[in-house]
Design a protein that fits this description.
Rossmann fold; alpha/beta; 629 residues; binds thiamine diphosphate
Length: 629
């Protein structure tokens, strides 16, 4: 019987021989490659930590001990080893399958949920401090990627370790990659740790320990050889981590299970916070992932032999590509225009700017807060920065948008990709809250285009506008609308009437304009005497109050449609405007309910599950109409 099938809980791993552990690693790799090739997913990061995760479960005892994985996109092996190697794993990231990240609702082995980078060390420190307060003896292990180490929150946690606990194990999974190549001084420093010739006392204590465990002498000889070859082991005093009172050991080979187990055993006995620096290879064991680590960080379904996508390429360009190319066009004509990404050049398509105008391009690492204040600084000196950040990741920089950009009325443009659903990733990645958290800040201008031509116009308009402007647009292929040669300026706060009608007014934002057309057709067919108007709102702020308050007195009711949470969203803004104008026109709001929306196979499936399919929208509006007749 295959070894993996027999693993029902981490306890089963403890029984295996070193040879079996090695064989288990092979089976896990096969399982992950198979499932991600079908469903898509974070293949590269997971293939890099197969041996490391096996070793962690061999040495520690979850759920008594706690593992906190940063981002937790590399948690598939952990799932397989903690009782989740079942049919729901086959459906990983799909409807009714397991979530692609750690999730406290899914298993007691998932000590802390994540999806956004940089939280693992703080969370682990909290778990460790809670343990200390209770007088507990269990272990807390934080697994950080080399890029997550660069996050501001991680550095804040590092600064706090020594005052929060005496026992914490940090495993630094260093594969030299974020999604794209890791950038910045910390990446350089880690590289320096790996390659410099500062030789230490060979961590005498580690040596002594290794000599005392079975097979340790052999491993020590091996590591001494590696030491000669790669100038392994760094003097503890030389390590930056030691300055944070975090004992440093490493770097060690992250694909040697036996060696990892011994080092982890050493960490387990440490009476001071300790960091084990582990070197891994992203995508190990899968040729196509090794060849293209960026593409296979997170992939859509692919052919295992060639790496080619399984799904046919969309005929229409993606929203983010249209944004990326429009920005290049604008930046060519004005050298003050600069593009800023927080470690997502390919995800945001800022890679076009990087290629064509590298001097006008900045990748600041996974540092959204810094990206926003950095942009504010540039704007204060007359530049026109454009921050391309996913809607859900900008949540992190709320105060910077408030305090550094809007309060000082600085001319920063924000292009919020993934505004709407990110179906396979789920709750951590859906961009459903940006209108609500931006609308309350004075001076914000928030827009969303109905198609890609309007996106180009809005990018141009936002850059031209002298103040904080936000353009939100969804993930994936756009509508296929032809693009004008030159983007046009849209008057700020001006909506577009797409269809005249009086009785029911559909106010739709962005991608929901297409739904408004379907709804109008159905309503007019169902109620032949009814006239239905469609407005492409274009702006969630400032709303076109003049148009709204002119239409409202003549309408039986107004329907708002948005790909955003209802709480505080576009529909709420419409109601506020009507109330402020003392207009009693009823409003039916279509949008996402006040819940964290789970992951699912497709956008359509999730919309059906939450009564947002075209049919469900029609029945709701039709039922409301019946009450008003
Ligand atoms: C706040 C935030 N910004 C951006 C991302 C997108 N993101 C997901 S994984 C990742 C790179 C992580 O690199 P690293 O920590 O080195 O882990 P690895 O993937 O190499 O295992 C990025 C930028 C995110 N999840 N959260």
């Amino acid at each position: 019987m295959p070894l993996l099938e027999a693993i029902k809980s981490p306890t089963d791993i403890k029984e295996l021989t070193p040879e079996q552990l090695q064989a288990l690693a092979g089976e896990i790799r096969e399982r992950i490659i198979r499932v991600t090739s079908e469903n898509g997913g974070h293949i590269g990061p997971n293939l890099g930590v197969v041996e490391l995760t096996i070793a962690l479960h061999r040495i520690f005892d979850t759920p008594r001990d706690s593992f906190v994985f940063d981002v937790s996109h590399q948690g598939y092996i952990h799932k397989l080893l903690t009782g989740r190697n079942d049919a729901r794993f086959d459906k990983l990231r799909q409807t009714s399958g397991y979530c692609g990240f750690f999730n406290r609702d899914e298993s007691p082995h998932d000590a802390f949920g994540a999806g956004h980078a940089g939280t693992a060390l703080s969370a682990a420190l909290g778990l460790a401090a809670a343990r200390d307060l209770r007088g507990g003896s269990e272990h807390v292990v934080a697994l950080l990627g080399d890029a997550s180490l660069t996050c501001g929150i991680t550095l804040e946690a590092l600064n706090n370790i020594s005052s929060s606990t005496k026992r914490l194990i940090v495993v630094l999974n260093d594969n030299e990659w974020a999604i794209d190549k890791n950038v910045g001084a910390i990446a350089d420093y880690l590289n320096h740790l790996i390659t410099t010739s500062i030789y230490n006392r060979a961590n005498q204590e580690v040596e002594q320990f290794l000599r005392s465990v079975p097979g340790g002498g052999r491993l020590l000889a091996l590591s001494s050889r590696v030491k000669r070859d790669t100038k392994d082991f760094i003097t503890p005093q030389a390590s930056l981590f030691e300055k944070f009172k975090l004992r440093y050991i490493g770097p060690v080979d992250g694909h040697n299970i036996e060696q990892l187990c011994n080092y982890l055993e050493f960490c387990k006995r440490s009476t001071v916070p300790i960091l084990l620096h582990v070197r891994t290879i992203k995508g190990k064991g899968c040729d196509v992932a090794l060849r293209d680590p960026e593409k296979f960080h997170g992939s859509s379904p692919f052919q295992i032999s060639t790496g080619a996508p399984k799904t046919a390429a969309a005929i229409t360009p993606t929203w983010q590509d249209v944004f990326g190319k429009t920005l290049v066009k604008c930046a060519h004509s004005d050298p003050r225009i600069l593009g800023i990404t927080a470690a997502m050049p390919s995800g945001t398509s800022l890679s076009f700017l990087k290629q064509e105008l590298p001097k006008q391009y900045f990748d600041v690492g996974i540092a959204e807060e810094h990206a926003v204040v950095f942009a504010a600084g540039l704007a204060a000196k007359g530049y026109k920065p454009v921050c391309a950040i996913y809607s859900s990741f900008l949540q992190r920089a709320f105060d910077m948008v408030f305090h550094d950009v809007c309060l000082q009325n600085l001319d920063v443009t924000f292009c919020l990709d993934r505004a709407g659903l990110s179906p396979n990733d789920g709750a951590t990645h859906h961009g459903l809250f940006d209108i609500a958290y931006l609308r309350c800040i004075p001076r914000t201008v928030i827009m969303q285009p109905k198609d890609e031509d309007e996106l180009a116009d809005m990018v141009h308009t936002a850059i031209d506008y002298n103040g904080p402007a936000f353009v939100r647009y969804p993930r994936g292929p756009a509508c296929g609308a032809p693009l004008k040669d030159t983007p046009a300026l849209i008057p700020i706060g001006r909506a577009e009437v797409l269809k005249r009608g009086k009785d029911v007014q559909l106010w739709a934002l962005g991608s929901m304009v297409a739904d408004a057309h379907i709804l109008a057709q159905r309503l007019e067919k169902e109620y032949p005497k009814l006239t239905v108007g469609i407005v492409n709102a274009r702006f969630a702020k400032p709303l076109d109050a003049a148009l709204l308050t002119t239409q409202a007195p003549h309408a039986r009711f107004i329907v708002t449609l948005e790909d955003h949470a209802l709480s505080g969203g576009f529909g709420s803004a419409i109601i506020e405007t009507l109330q402020d104008a003392h207009l009693p026109t009823p409003v039916e709001r279509i949008g996402w309910p006040d819940k964290f929306i789970e992951h699912g196979t497709t956008q359509e499936q999730l919309r059906s599950a939450h009564a947002l399919s075209p049919e469900a929208i029609h029945s709701r509006v039709s039922a409301r109409l019946a009450t008003l007749s």
